[in-house]
Amino acid sequence: MGNSYAGQLKSTRFEEVLHNSIEASLRSSSLVPRPVFSQLYLEAEQQLSALEGGSRADNEEEEEEGDGGLEPSCPPTPYQMQPPPEGCCTTDGFCQAGKDLRLVSICSEPIDVPAGFLLVGAKAPSLPGHLLVCAVDRRFLPDDNGHNALLGFSGNCVGCGKKGFCYFTEFSNHINLKLTTQPKKQKHLKCYLVRNAQGALTPGPLICWKGSELRGRQTPAGPGSSSLFPPPDSSGPPAACSSEPSPGTNPSAPVGAQPAGPGSDPTSLPAAASPSPAVINGKDSPQQQQLAKGKLPAGPRPSALGIFSNSGPPKKRHKGWSPESPSAADGGYPQGGGNRAKYESAGVACVPPVGLVGPASVTFPVVASGEPVSVPDNLLKICKAKPVIFKGHGNFPYLCGNLNDVVVSPLLYTCYQNSQSISRAYEQYGAPALQPISEEMQLLLTVYYLVQLAADQVPLMEDLEQIFLRSWRESHLTEIRQYQPAPQPCPPVPGPGPAAPVTSAQLPWLAGLAASSCNDSVHIIECTYSLAEGLSEMFRLLVEGKLAKTNYVVIICACRSAAIDSCIAVTGKYQARVLSESLLTPAEYQEEVSYELVTGKVDSLGAFFSTLCPEGDIDILLDKFHQENQVRVSSSPTAASITKPMSLDVGGALACTSSGRKPQRIRPFQLAVAQKLLSHVCSIADSSTQNLDLGSFEKVDFLICIPPSEVTYQQTLFHVWHSGVLLELGLDKEQVTRQRVEQHVLKLDAEAQARFQVFLQNSFQNPHTLFVLVHDHAHWDLVSSAVHNLYSPSDPSVGLVDRLLNCREVKEAPNIVTLHVTSFPYALQTQHTLISPYNEIHWPASYSTGVDLYPEDRKYFGLSEFIESTLSGHSLPLLRYDSSFEAMVTALGKRFPRLHSAVIRTFVLVQHYAAAMMAVRGLSQMKNYTSVETLEITQNLINAPQQCPCGHGLMVLLRVPCSPLAAVAYERLAHVRARLALEQRFEIILGSPSSGLTVGKHFVKQLKMWQNIEDAEWRPQTYLELEGLPCILIFSGMDPHGESLPRSLRYCDLRLINSSCLVRTALEQELGLAAYFVSSEGPLEKGPRSEGLESDAEKPSSTDNEDEELVTEGSTSEKKSPVKRERSGSRDSASSGRSSKASGSALGGETSAPPGGPPQGEQTRSPQPCGPPEDTQRLRASQGPAPQPDSGRQTSQRSVQVAVSSPRQLPGAGASSSPTGPAAGTLVRQASPCSLAKARRQPPVVFLPKLVYDMVTSTDSSGLPKAASLLPSPSVVWASSFRPLLSKTMTSTEQSLYYRQWTVPRPSHMDYGNRAEGCVDGFHPRRLLLSGPPQIGKTGAYLQFLSILSRMLIRLTEVDVYDEEEINVDLREESDWRYLQLSDPWPDLELFRKLPFDYTVHDPKYEDASLICSHHQSAKSEDRGPPRKPEDLFVRRQTARTRLSKYAAHNTYHHCEQCHQYMGFHPRYQLYESTLHAFAFSYSMLGEEIQLHFIIPKSKEHHFVFSQPGGQLESMRLPLVTDKSHEYIKSPTFTPTTGRHEHGLFNLYHAMDGASHLHVLVVKEYEMPVYKKYWPNHIMLVLPSIFNSAGVGAAHFLIKELSYHNLELERNRQEELGIKPQDIWPFIVISDDSCVMWNVVDVDGGGERSREFSWSERNVSLKHIMQHIEAAPNITHYALIGMRKWSSKAGGRAVREPFSRCHVHDFIVLNVDLTQNVQYNQNRFLCDDVDFNLRVHSAGLLLCRFNRFSVMKKQIAVGGHRSFHITAKVSDSPAAVVPAQYICAPDSKHPSLAAPAQLLLERFLQHHSHRFFPLSLRNHGHPVLLVDCYLNLGSQISVCYVSSRPHSLNVSCSDSTFSGLLLYLCDSFVGASFLKKFHFLKGATLCVICQDRNSLRQTVVRLELEDEWQFRLRDEFQTANAKEDRPLFFLTGRHI
Q1: What's the CA gap between 45 and 146, in Å, rounded?
Q2: What element of type H or E holds 851?
Q3: 1528 φ, ψ to 5°?
Q4: Strands 1653-1660, 1533-1536: pairing kind
Q5: Rounded distance between C-alpha atoms, residue 989 and residue 971, angstroms
Q6: pTM greater than 0.70 (yes/no)
Q7: What's phi and psi for 595, nearest 5 deg?
């Protein structure tokens, strides 16, 4: 029959197919039934594995059409279309009857669609972009798995109305498809058509032809490339065709959520005639789609896809639709956030995707087959809960009838599917295909798992996945070990170990055997025919009440074929309720609750409560009390006593340490985190990616984005205000105003977009400001903006974070750094995250290997500490649950099965609080109607203020996530409080995110008094400002938004949190509310303490303090119904024999015996304001109607203990009966009774729902809390069930890497479309993530980070410059020799010549140098202070920090737009394009030709002359003296440098103010490559290699000689052009590499000789200074021009004279023409400038210092003369060589040093010259005579310099007597007669220094030294060099 399987029957039995076919044809209105046998060849109901791949899928189309068994390789036969009948229409898009079928034309027209038919869109090849509308019988279309489509076709033409087309070929002809290939419905019917909110037809989901086909044929573009998605306007619910009205969607509901009221969304299909329509369960469920990157979920699926149409309205909009069932290997990731469709009218139970109970919160189609199963009426009424049916393996039958009362979920199916794909995960390791775990084994393990669940536990899909994984691993252990590291610890497999495979025949028997041990909590039903009979049987048993004790029903149909069918129904009332509620999204949960409140369903609950009280309704009692109280108050003056405790008691004021809210100082932890943030920002800047250029920013600005919570907003404003960050950042000058602070905090609400645009504009306009965008509470609202566009364009808040923080402008702005801050970073740590793992900063651990890293005076108490408090050996646990409350809730849940448990829990808790308040006010009979825990809370709340002299009380946080319920709770509690006249005792505050705080006037007055606030208008705006206020804070909102709570928080009542929402983020977020800092002085005691137990027990009542009151009523908790109490390890606050002294009194110093031990003492308590104690047995008599689940496990021992510990009671007093025997310790008694003071020492007590308590306190095998291994966030899904478990030992970083590997975002998550997995480029470079525990101080840390970031940027724009006073100023000559023309801009040559030369060196860097004496100075013999140690020389020099001006010179770290070109980024020249040129000249003194090399960048070649372009370098161009241009600087600048390629200040672009100049770097040969790398656009002069170890003297020498040689060449060259030689500019600049800025002094003189003058200093450009100097008249007459070194201490005296004739340093303008015959000493390392200055002066040349110009020198810690280190040449020890070892006796065995001889000499003389000149030490009247050379002999020895040259200017020495003579390498000008002119003291010493020993002897003979000086053999020395390093030799002698 045309089937390629050769007629082989499928697994579907003949009778079943026959039955289906007959039923279908009976229901069909117009079709001829297809032959029944064609159905027998339907493909088996199983997924094709990916391995079977495309060939099979490709072939299936042929098979379905029955065209014969074409092999996959056969070429397709060309298709000949039949000619159309004569006269019919053949236009594309019209049918043959001429009617328009195009969707665009008829989308708004009403179309008659018969029952059972669907509208689909056909694609015509001739009409691209158009869909043709067709009506097709549903049975011939596939279900969501691509299965169950009948072969063949049945369709109608919607244009002309023609019906009954039985062949697709015929139909395609009729609608003019004009095909060139064989007509196939699979190819041409593309998508379903649905109506949008406006009623227009739009393309809906694609038709899923074969789930495997899409996989096998997927194009690279993915399924998203076809028209998957309707336009946004079609994404609403389908519009009505029926007469039902279409209400608008709810704009405030989150994505995918619609109101759940009856008929909120009308159906898109006509109602069926059938009165009880059957529906394929799950068809309306949101489904999953593997969407192409960046694509969005599709619109809704048509609701009636079954054989029968569906009259029930689809209640919710769906988020996506799946053409396939994904598996881990496919990469099809589940999508989330969908919702459960609840049908109030037609009652279809559908599957939610938010499987918050299990990881796979994805819905998968539940495939129906076989006869429908009718759900009995009144099922909910009978069962008291809606059964939750999990589809398992195989086919699932249709359900019809009362579908309201069941919930069908695909979570288990998904779990099975994921586990089947485990083995595929190994294929990536190259493993051979391992067999997946069999379906039979899966089901058996599931049964084992269910059997071992406790009565109060709920199954978790995560547990099941781990069980499957472990079982599979064990069965393939040997294969796996080859490919995988050892498996992580998993939950124990409860079933049998790996053994022989389970067959389907054995399965029911084995399952029954497993279930036989569990007391019928798991019931197995075996079916012989199909699951339908098992489901029917289950419904029958439920209705008959035979499954009352059964929690789970497992239905197995295993005999039909090899494949098994199975499903599991959860029938336990508790489990079914938890599971069904967990399937609601948060939005649906809110809707459900609102609906129940609005429709009055809760009234029955109120009525029930009123029947509980035997004395009548509570309200009647309240009214009665109120009236009596009124009478009492009016008749008695004691009413004031209520307010008395509130008044301020001066005596007690000291006892309680209350104060106003002070901003906290920054803590060591916060500082450490801020520094980590800063180092991460610096590392981004330092990386080679150029993503952040910190050097270009001058200041920091910021914007903090927070969730739309008014309290969080005010709290953040407070932090910003008090942190001082605005002043620190310079964003506010003097007084910070509130408006200024508000500009920096953005609440992400409706107005955020406009303000954010202002921020973006600011960042664009201020490129030199670094903007930090802080996204606080960053785990909130991660919805993709694309989802917002599709689903709720009208709701601006959805996807706002994505729209703002991920917009293109933020991502691309180079000056915006985004910092995400959160306590729960998991949703930002997925495979698609934008944040690099290297940019994550985690809060540091406080301890590392037992060492306290950051000692603090407060201990952080977070989740792990709370959990730790529940472990045995600790004092009272801080985490507790309330068993009596839970029991009552459970009982009421059974009584009111239709009410959501949140409603029941809220009403019960409010009732408990109301009853407790009444009990405390004296209505003691009400104690029976509350729980011990609630009574304890209420007593402490009401009584604590009376014990504090100031009236301080405690806060009770009552968390009610659902806002409508919070409002109900608030109204009820406020009403009860008013009736009980407690309005003055405590406040009730309703805290909701959307509104601010409202606090009564009386309490505001108190707060102002406590906090010393004068402002009459002040109102508390944050919870922190409520410190000390006795209050109940009803905290609503689905999620906390980062609100901090005050330290007076004593109880954190979380009994109402949505306990079914089992996601790690949600749980940790709720528990984070209680996170707390505890003062260290009251240490948290661990373990029992034994002091004072006996004695304390005997004492009469002690002080009335909070801790003792707790037990007033709580003590009786043990006595009631002891049988209900025991549960091993429980932390029910009154169980395990613990008393409910719940405020953790042991923490304050009270002691407790080991748990379970006998009572060690009783404590009598003081009387309380309550009435007399009730009989203990009656306390909770009518509480929970049902016994607790653990009631059967009681031990007799515990009841005995309880009975024994019942103490006798004093009248009116409660008593403690705790077996733990807490006794009031001495510490408590001494401490202040103020609850606030106590609260500082102990964290709050947290009450949790039992389910959450168990989840939080149970741990896995590694000790990790169970809660940590849950799905991390609702917006992500696990990438695979094949994943290791988290481990307790993992650090935050390792957890981040774990989540990055194993989670993927859902399509609704903003990161969904970010990148392909593993692609590093997907990270955003300027994005950081700071995570730390809640309430630990992250806000303070990032504000501190902003401050230090700003300081660092300022530091980058600041520089440390030397700031030292000039030395030796008191030695200056008399004023007669000063330049007195104070207003001269330039020196007058004639006047200047008359000035004497000031020999004294005034530069502070020569403070340690020898003083140079001249005859003008009165010889001063006082000591010049002790010499510095050599290592102090650098350290102790004074510096000042100053801002870089716009005229500063910069190092290589400076980048800005302007100097890009200057630095070598020139568009015309390639980077690094430069040429090497040799330049040789001869110099007679060296006796050889010198060859230098120039490296000249292309952009600088115009400064040089070449023999031809690219030819020999001839000279460097020089300008003319007569040039007056202001466009350039005439003098070439030479900068000798070593070791400072990064730090040298060679970027003179800004210093020269952009003017053209010639700048040459003079570098050593070995350093040339590195300088060239950093400064590619600078001209380099490379010294010959012989100078590699030379000092700065060699560089100066070569610069000067080269410049003179060049001057000669230029004179010759330009003389040929007719220019006189003297007109060529002869000056060069020699500048240090640390000159950073230049200043000028403006003097306002009051007349020529007036003493009064004012002056000011300003920063100017080097261009300004150079052009001023170069414009000086007669400038060519000056040999050296310099300027002052800047000092902040320079007084008027220093700048009064405009010019001085003295030494110049650091930055000199040198006339190479005049100084032709004066050379720098090329051997010198130190003081070579002083030496050169003295030579120039003695040659009769002028040195001029411009005193009104100053140069600032930057302190650079590297390079320069410090780069010379003197070490031993062959050194075994790393010890430093001291200067005394720099010389040695000739021929001695002294270790030779690796340093130039000249450097050793200079350093030795600097530190040890007193060895040679003992008479000269501190003898300034008798200096040492230096001939022709200045050497530094140290600060203790003065010297006198003379030149031996004829005609030189020398100091007059005729009347001087010298204490020593130093002859250094003296030349022929020094003769015996020259030396005989000078007089020496008797015993004066001589030192002669020569190149070798021979010259030494010759010099002694030539100068006839032996006539006056006595020499000894032992007085000869040499520098400690090796012979090959040519040491210097010296001889010393004494004057005779």
Answers
A1: 10
A2: strand 851-852
A3: -145, 170
A4: unpaired
A5: 10
A6: no
A7: -60, -45
Burial 63-78 (b: 16+ CB within 10 A, else e): bbbeeeebeeeeeeee
DSSP for 171-218 reads HHHHTT---SS---HHHHEEEEEEE-TTS-EEEEEEP---HHHHHHT-
CA dihedral over 694, 697, 701, 706, signed as positive or negative: negative
pLDDT of residue 1029: 96
Q: What pLDDT score does 80 carry? A: 66
Distance CA 1222, CA 1203 (A): 17
Identity of the amino acid at 1462: Y
Cα 1341 off chain centre by: 13
Return the higher-pLDDT residue of 487 and 1053. 1053
Tokens of 184: 């196939």
Residues 6+ apart with CB under 8 A from 1889: 1801, 1862, 1863, 1864, 1865, 1928, 1929, 1930
Among 979, 944, 974, which Cα is nearest to 958's? 974
Check: CB of residue 1266 under 8 Å from CB of residue 1258.
yes
Q: Write phi, then psi, for 1541 (nearest 5 degrees).
A: -60, -30
pLDDT for residue 1392 = 94
Judge whether 925 and 1179 are in contact, CB under 8 Å: no
Phi-psi region of 66 (alpha: psi -120 to 50; beta: other; left: phi over 0): left
pLDDT band at 1516 (very low <50, low <70, confident <90, very high): very high
- Using alpha carbons, select from 1479, 1471, 1534 the residue that is nearest to residue 1506: 1479
Q: Is the separation of the CB atoms in 925 and 615 below 8 Å?
A: yes
d(CA 463, CA 1405): 75
Distance CA 1185, CA 608 (A): 12
Degrees (nearest 5) of the Cα angle 846, 849, 853? Answer: 35
pLDDT tens-digit map of 581-629 = 999 888 889 999 999 999 988 988 888 888 877 666 788 889 889 999 8
Q: How far, in Å, CA of 802 to CA of 806, rounded?
A: 5
Closest CA to 1415 of 1400, 1393, 1401, 1394: 1400
- Give the pLDDT confidence of 1288-1331 residue by residue, as tens digits: 889 999 999 999 999 999 999 999 988 644 455 689 999 999 99
The kind and range of the H/E element at 1516 are strand 1513-1516
> Can you say how many angstroms the Cα of residue 911 is from the centroid of all Cα atoms in its chain?
43
User: 1728 CB contacts (<8 Å, ≥6 apart)?
Assistant: 1591, 1592, 1593, 1596, 1720, 1721
DSSP assigned state of 1177? G
Q: What are the tokens at 1064?
A: 């790690």
Is the pLDDT at 297 greater than 70? The verdict is no
1719-1734 confidence digits (pLDDT tens):
999 999 999 999 999 9
Distance CA 1624, CA 1606 (A): 11
Identify whether the C-beta of residue 285 lies closer than 8 Å to the C-beta of residue 303.
no
Phi/psi-derived region of residue 929, left when phi > 0, alpha when psi is between -120 and 50, beta in every other case? alpha
- Return phi, psi of residue 358, to 5°: -135, 165
Q: At what angle do helices 963-979 and 586-598 cross, to 10 degrees?
A: 50
pLDDT of 659 higher than 60: no
Q: Give the pLDDT confidence score for residue 1261 in this predicted structure.
A: 75
Q: 3-state secondary structure string, 1132-1165?
A: ECCCCCCCCCCCCHHHHCCECCCCCCCCCCCCEC
CA separation, residue 1273 to residues 548, 842, 1055, 1215 (Å):
36, 19, 22, 46
CA distance 133 to 189: 10
**Hey, how many other C-beta atoms are within 10 angstroms of the C-beta on 1645?**
14
* Token output for 1852: 């007059």
Question: What's the distance, CA 1135 to chain centroid?
Answer: 42
